Amino acid sequence: MNIVVLAGGLSDERDVSLSSASQIANALIQKGHCVLLLDLYLGMKDVREFEEAHRKYGKNEYTYQVPKEAPNLKKLIQENQNRTNQIGINVISICQSADIVFLGLHGGIGENGVLQALFDLYQIKYTGSNYKGSLLAMDKIVSKEIMVSNNILTPEWCLIDDFNEVNVQAPAVVKPNDNGSSIGVEIVEEQSQLMASINRAKKYSDKILVEKKIIGREFSVGILGDQVLPVIELIPKNGFYDYSNKYQAGATEEIVPANLQSDLSKKMQQIAFKIFHKLDLKVYGRVDFLMDNENTIYCIEVNSLPGMTPTSLLPQEALAKGMSYEELCQQIVKLSLEKY
Questions:
Q1: 8, 34, 71, 112, 213 from 55: Cα distances, Å
Q2: For 147-167, what is each residue's pLDDT tens digit?
Q3: Which of 242, 262, 259, 260 is nearest to 251 (CA)?
Q4: Residue-by-residue DSSP string for 227-291
């Protein structure tokens, strides 16, 4: 098949996306597909169709290393003549002429449902969830409200925006409401530091989520079609599972299957499967958890386009189930085409 792997974009998770997409593209090439990696923001100026673009810019192998710091989007915009249009030239026509688009995007319009809705209008086939599920999962406040309405335990929280005051006490976790990869996330131990942390988070979102800090172990559970993948435990060597610890090799110990009692693993998997479907997600995703010292399980958030970098969790969980990275990418394409 002719497959566009769409990556990059004007997102704080741009670098993560480019790394994920490079790995995805290589895997699909190994499976015999004709693959083009395409930057959502940059586009391609001199080609309009997939086959021509592949002849000019297609590679046999793609590489990209995630830097330790989040990308400087202002600099990127300036380098492109201050162009703020989020969809690059010829992106739509190239995607239309492919058999399917593998969404290797994270954050921004690639994960909040906007791009999915646009592709639906242009009848472009794409991998993963539709616009509704993507929107619900990306909005942390909305997804937590859906958790509560379905009796799924999640840490207490408050929303900080122009109309709400802080009513959560430190220690707390401060998060931008609609960002991923832990960008802008801070753990605040002292009440006096809370407002400064909130103000820093406002760089990434107009709405800020302030959660009660849960002390305990971190876990994640992947979903692939009707399969619930094995639970994986995350043990950062320093600090918490932040941007650097997620994407720098060796920064976090990941244990899969997690060293958990079978009843706790099963309960976590059941919760993951339930919230995945309550958010109307499709094909694949990942659900993150914390478990305190009394073995109480808290659902933290849901990812509709989980990372696919060399250090990402979903590929490790699939491998523990006996599925190689190449087979995982192939299965995502197969399940996504079944939507249509």
A1: 21, 10, 30, 32, 52
A2: 999 999 999 998 876 555 666
A3: 242
A4: EEPPPEEEEESSSSS-HHHHHSTTSEEEESS-S--HHHHHHHHHHHHHHHHHTT--SEEEEEEEE
CA distance linking residue 22 with residue 156, whole number of Å: 38
CB 232 within 8 A of CB 258: yes
What are the structure tokens assigned to 180, written together?
């991923």
Q: If residue 297 lies in a helix (H) or strand (E), which one and from where to where?
A: strand 297-303
Lowest mean pLDDT among 4-18, 115-129, 131-145, 235-249: 235-249
In single-letter form, the type of residue at position 23 comes to: Q
pLDDT of residue 181: 47
Q: 148: Cβ–Cβ under 8 A, 6 or more apart, which residues?
A: 154
Residue 267 vs residues 11, 160, 285: alpha-carbon distances, Å: 34, 32, 18
Cα–Cα dist 249/215, whole Å: 25
pLDDT computed for residue 248 by the predictor: 47
User: Length of the chain in residues, anyone?
Assistant: 340
CA distance 213 to 155: 8
Domains of the chain, start order: 2-126 (3.40.50.20), 138-153+216-329 (3.30.470.20), 157-212 (3.30.1490.20)
Contact 58, 35 (CB under 8 A): yes
Per-residue model confidence (pLDDT) at position 161: 67
